[in-house]
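Hi W.,

Here's what went into the run:
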Amino acid sequence: MRSALLLLLITTVLELLSLERGQAQNPTSFTVYGTVIDSVTQKPINGAAIFLREVRIGSYTDKNGFYGLAAPTGQYTLRVSYLGYLPKIINVKLDQNQILDISLSKDIQLLQEVVVTSSNPEENIKNTETGMAKLSIRSIRKIPAFMGEVDVMRSLQMLPGVSSVGEGSSGLNVRGGSIDQNLVLMDEAPVFNSSHLFGFFSIFNPDAVNDVTLSRGAISAEYGGRTSSVLNVKLKEPDLEKGSIFGGVGLVSNRFGFEAPIIKNKLSILLASRGSINDYLFKLGPNSIKGTIANFYDLTGKILFKPTSNTRLAYTSYYSYDIFKLPGDSLSTVQVNASSSTFRYRTFNQTLKFSWFITPKSSFSIFGVQSLYRAQTSAPDSSVAFTLRSSIRMRSVKARYLHATDKTNLSFGLEANFYEIHPNTLQPGPFSNLLKLEIAPEIARETGAYIEDEWKFSKAFSVIAGLRYSFFQRMGPDTVRSYDGDIHRQETVSATEFVAKNKVAQSYGGFEPRLSLRYALDDNTSIKASYNRMRQYVQLFSNTTAALPTARWGTSDLNLKPQIADQVALGFFKNLNKNAWETSVEIYYRRSSNFPDYRDLANLIFSQKLEQEVIQGQGKAYGIEFMARKNIGFFRGWVTYTYARTKIKMDEKYASIHNYTGAWYPANYDKPHTLNLMMSYRMSSTVTFSANFTYSTGRPATFPYGKFVVNGNAVPIYPTRNLQRIPDFHRLDLSLIIDPSASTSGPKKKWQGSWIISIYNVYGHKNAYSVYSDLNQLQQTNSYKLAIFGAVFPSLTYNFKL
Amino acid sequence: MAVLRGLYPDSIMKIIQIFSLLFLALLLNTCISPFNANAPYEVDGLVISGTLTTTTGLQEVELRRPAAFTTASINYGVKDAKVWIVDNQGNKQDFVADQVNAGFYFPADKKYVAEKGKTYILHVLAQDQSKYESAPETVKPVAPIKNVYTEEIITTDAGLGKVLSGYNILLDTEDPATKGDYYRWSWKHFESISFCKEIYAFPSRARTATLTAFSCCELPCWDIDRCYKNCTNIMSDVLINGKSITRHPILSIPYCSTDYYVEVQQRSITKAAYDYWQAVEQLSANNGSIFDVAPAAIRGNMSCINDAKKTAFGFFEVSDVQERGFFINRSEVKNRAILQRCPPYPTTIELFTCEPCRESAYRTKLKPKFWTK
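Here's what came out:
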């Protein structure tokens, strides 16, 4: 109604104007009006310019995307344009009043020039949450990539509070959490291993990713089950209007994909594939690496269906496969001596999501998810040939309701997860003497309910309060052992009970309060605080410095208590120079209980009684994170500095089975100082230059100080755990993006190709990947520093779109 | 790469290929450099390794000091300690220090053996009066060796093609149906010698000493050769219980046209000993890589009973032993053999300086048990 009034007003004004100019008024003047919307999000575009070329009459859309233009009868060329969108030219025959709704599609090329962040620059001041970071795929693409592979997980390490054990190790450590304490979601489906090739690359295909959001401070009550952070990877929506083909060829992998509307504005499909081709690199190498096989591929597919204007159904499917074969090694941890082994692992995730936008303010969605991760190790040696398989499958159903008003943002929902873990099954080869070994599967249910509301009390003050209740049940069939005392050894088993199928073996539950407060001192300054409690019932058990892809997942049971973590965070946010600069300081303290560590030389792979290998202790992490970010102009980037500590303590009662009890010792990923610098400079409309620099303290390590020899084996004697460190890490990377199709002059080409030249580790610093010792009699030195990424890595990638 | 051809213009493929080669050239840069981890020079503690078996000649106790974690450091043997073993019936057997090899102690009664089912405790009294004791260890019977045999190792030589380069010595045995059997295998090689001492000299204008002659020997005399690197050869029946253990590797020897005599021992060990040896293997494989297991203390069964601060490393292992000794006929070769790798042969013999065949851990006058020649 309001729009109609506005239309009337505009027409009147326009008519008055033309009258004033004294032009002869054509009595048969008509109006064209309608809304301008985004083709993908279907949201109105505010401020789009509408122009009738022939009569040189123009206007802008209002905040509802509405426009109206009046002109005499005739044939016109109507041009609609808005920054960041492809302009549209429509021929209009004006012989009556007519409605013309126009949808604009985003101009990817142009957007690089104009839009920096996918969110509003002042969002960091206005939203209530602490420790929130959103990166669009466009900003991720600007970060110089290792071997030309645009990598979501690696890019996140440029953010404060995010680190990893080392270059090329899998997973992320967020604010002192271990890698399994991050809930990594790809279109709502949890990802159990986010790395390709042991951690060199991440499993997300950049062609299919829209944006990633990392919540490391305040975490919405909607999410649970992990104690340290939520990483939400949103995949692109298939374009409902126009199809495209895209891809790229690079040193490591080749990509190819397409999106195609099947029924315009109703049904569309997106498919993106990626496969590595690195084998040939190893074949050219020396004998020691010639036999190496290291390959991966992944497929990402998404179907979007919009039967009506306020309902939508989306199906996402993701499959990835990795194979890694070392030319010769022995898996001493598997109790079988084998000469060479092959690792294979795959992820298969599916999400089906139905959303109903009941009113513009409220929506309901329900989705079903299946996440499957399988790992396999095999050795070919005939007498001890074996295949070792493990898998984790999670099926889940989730429903949520959102209701927003100007003052509040209410949401509530329910969730039910079903876990089925097959820890390890050893299948002997045809001529093998080994016995088949199968560790009993773990079946568990985890349910959750949450309610959360955001109250905007005033322009300055807002609160998000949420409460989640999670309930976990470890189901039978399960053999439950009770122990005398706290030390779980075979000798201390006091009773054994068998729990039948579908019976509950053990249950845990509890509330998880979440609270965020924000107070704005002025338009450009705010102070925020948050508190959250998280519970984790499913965890990764790994005793190595960096987790192997074959590491074992397990659920809580009678003897393995769920992990509980509490985090408090305080942040100060200030934007300077009309939001051109964002700055922030955040401090946090995190305490966790039942943090897992392992008895000395624990056997995790074949243990039928995991509680005899695991010890649970305390963890604490604290830190301060500084960030300054420039968002506008040809020269952009950010600088962050983090001071962070993570420590673990095991109770003294475990002294007989754990060498370092009773004192806090640094976690494997405790790196106190981290400095990250990322900048990009747009040299011209077709060329962008970017650079990043990173410095961090070396990760903790324990070097042996003594040795003795028994049976010809030199046995190292270790001091207290993790009190030494490998050398500090620093590296500079550069990249140059040349995109001729982004040129503003000349005709638009159909084939849009772009080159990315990147140089990783520009000054070739031999960063220590690890420090190892080799007591080789022929050489006099004893400890060595191994730098896998120790050289300059130039790479070249070609991307195309059509 | 070939599959991709056609998908992209040729020029793009060419550029990518050039880059790949450039990348490879850089990848092959050596990336290993020495690193100083600040290792101390002195390490406290005492390493006590004891072996008591049901077979004569295999009983020994070795006392050594731990050393710094460097290549150059040596685990010095500890002399002047008192060593004895007591069984559950109170019988005591003293061990005496070996005069040639510091740190080795052998039973005073050379025929001393352990008996199946009996429990033993090792006692060590160091010179500084600190007293060490082992946990009580019981001898468990071991299954007999079913077969020991050899297999030719055929390799491809650049000049000769497929050649015989050595032999693998393999073992078969039957694991009893009971669970909880743990095995350790070891071997001893006896080389009949004619010359006892190598004489090194500086030939004219040479800067380094070279082997010039051998001195003759009081005969018969045998050199005893044992495994000296990564010799922990253990197995648990967890994964094979009740089945036969076949083709279990014992050792590999190079090709030489003389016969080779070896004695193989199959020992029953306890769960604690198995855990200990496994820890030894696991920890000695740790080299600092990111897939290393977390550092841990190695827990043996020795402890200092009058000073809790003194650390004792090592293990006192008792076992039942099944032994086989045999010759490997290396003179009859069906296939073409690789160039021989044999012990050095004398060029000149110093006939006038004959050495006695001194009894030690590495040399003996006693004929090996299974020596048939």
